[in-house]
Design a protein that fits this description.
Nucleotidyltransferase, domain 5, 3-stranded antiparallel β-sheet, binds zinc ion, 5-stranded mixed β-sheet, 37% helix, alpha/beta
Amino acid sequence: MSEVCLGCECNYFEFIQKFYKDNEASIAYLRDHGVLPLGVSCPRCNKPCHYRAERHTWYCGAYRKIAKTKRRKQCYFSVSDFKGSFLSGAKIEPYKVICFANHWLSKQWDYQTVRECLGISVATGAAWQKYCSEVTEHWLDNQEPIGGPDIVVDIDETLFGKLKYEKGKSLSQIWVFGGIERDSKNYFIFPLEEPLSQNLMSLIQKFILPGSVIVSNRWNAYSSINNYDYIHQVINHSGDSTDEENAQAHTQSTELLWRDIKEWTPGPGNRLQFYKQYLSRLLFLQHHTFSNINHYFFREVARMYPPGLETEETSSDSCNDVQKEPNDHEDKESEVSD
Ligand SMILES: [Zn+2]
Ligand SMILES: [Zn+2]
């Protein structure tokens, strides 16, 4: 059994050249990246199943002794290769799934082009756009926490978007919160929901390790940091030289923090869910190169849908039909309107 890919380079055009109209190569790529299982063991016999590529199915086929007799019985356990995976219930061929993602991960993402070139319906295209977004949102949600005892973390918040009033409500604006280690420059960024101060503390606790020295500007929402296991320093521009030095270092750090999303303006709609989608895709694109973005995307897919965890038994030993794939995606696809 081979191991999952630890890193590979394949740019946009190389990717299309390798996988366009090639389901076999696409499935091998997905398997190499842990999206599909490298092996399946039978839940009844605990023995390794064998794979039949033409049916995309794993079969057991081992013989078991029947208790109190001398007879043996063959195990007919089988499971779809795609069960519980990113491809579960997919209505489009595997090569289309990965070529769709490849295009979605390019800066020139164009929904119309990808749909027409791959020959997929509006509803299916919208659904796969959503599944791809869920992967980068999963990545955003699972950013590594930063800081730790005595490590200085500069935090900052920024408001994105244009202020536009409609029926007294401001639209197209979103608070984004982030933190960056002053020395290593490791950082996280996350959209901030209302009520700000309440959600802020939960983000700080999620992404900043206890014992960190948190440096912030003066903003009311930050006032409760001291109630938690952190050391909180507030830049107060007192003219004091230590404070000025700290203020300068803080500004330099936070400028780096927003560098990646400086030109970002939220798209239409005022729902945080969509802002989070835009932001997560944008940050994912900024974090990776043209050549390695596909690798990291499919490794994230594998983390989100770990294969082999949902292996269930088929209903009876006598049933040797290929197990029907659960249509996880199908349900969701039908929810999306054209
Ligand atoms: Zn790889
Ligand atoms: Zn078995």
